[in-house]
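Q: My labmate handed me this sequence with no annotations at all. I'd like to see what the chain might look like in three dimensions before we decide whether it's worth expressing. Could you predict it?
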Amino acid sequence: MKELGIGIIGFGTVGAGVADCLLKNGEVIAKRTGVKPVIRKIADLDIVRDRGVKVPDGVLTTDAMEAIESCQVIVELVGGTTFAKTIILEALKRGKPVVTANKALLAKFGEELFAAAEKSGADIFYEASVGGGIPIIKSLREGLVGNRINRIYGILNGTCNYILTRMERDQADFKEVLADAQKLGYAEANPSLDVDGFDTAHKATIAASLAYGDWFGMDPVYVEGITGITLDEIKLTKELGYKIKLLAIIKQNEGNVEIRVHPTLIPKHSMLAKVDDVFNAVLVNGDFVDDALFYGRGAGRNATASAVVADITDVCLNLTAGSSRRIPGFVAGNLYKKVLPIDNVWSRYYLSLQVADEPGVLAKITNILAAYNISISSVVQKERKGTENVTLVILTHLCEEKNMKAAIVEINALAEVRNNVKFIRIEDL
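A: Here is what I predict for the chain of 429 residues:
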């Protein structure tokens, strides 16, 4: 039985999960694959704190370079984009394959890291960077290799999905549910990375890069979080047959690519609408496979560890067979023309606003929309309740975003409009 030495750098929650999985299931992996990954070194600044995992004597070290020098496979789990980058480049320089879960690092430096991997002939695998325990990277890279990818829709942040689920289910406002999420450990003390959409955006640009053969980075990704979603919006959209989800949307449209993250209305009967609480899901549409749905836990110690160990196993099999880069982690393909800015995206829209309950107000609003070639799908006016104002809800047909934004500026300027128009994009899944 072939054994290969694994060096884990970073012994936090995920690192402990990976160590636990390898120690408990190493024999199972060996029986299934004919190769056994064995932990030789675990490097961390703190090697005293109890992680709930008993590792063999002599495995723990505070020297990351000791792990890189003495092991055949390097697993980077320190996070961040500075030291983690150094670790990976040092390992690749020595021709050693790397497994990482670091989405922020790949989103920012993917092009540089994979250029180094190409030069060294070593692998970088990164299944855990998108979707936690959901095997979406392997599916895009291997299972769907015979498809041109038309669309990817992803619920990729468990914190945001939990908040939106609770707001709808419990009729609670954003701040209340966020506080509960923090108490339960679903949200950080500073939750901005999650609720402002950037965690999802990191994952979206990685998935887009795989689908279309270029490292896009973060610059072309439109990002909008969920902090502006109110309980009123949750209630109104539900009445109309929709649910609000923070959605990563990756599309190819006449050869141009869209990469965007924002709250989105999706029909409540759709598959993604049924994904609740901390769970994640990714819907991929390929030209031959049509729709394929991937569902599971997108974060957490064990789910992430499962994905990391799968990558470790693949790397070990490659080394044993002498076939490094047999299925590269990334291959440039340039399967697109350009990335569309958000102003050039076409979408349907939900608009809600408070207006004076007077004759002719609706006509003024519809005339403005018509002037910008925006066609109305439906209009709902809620009954007045003790005020001079009423709530007006408008759903549109497809239109270009720049036209919608220009129309909203004019609508907001009307004397009869009591608040700025709220708008949410719609995807008919």
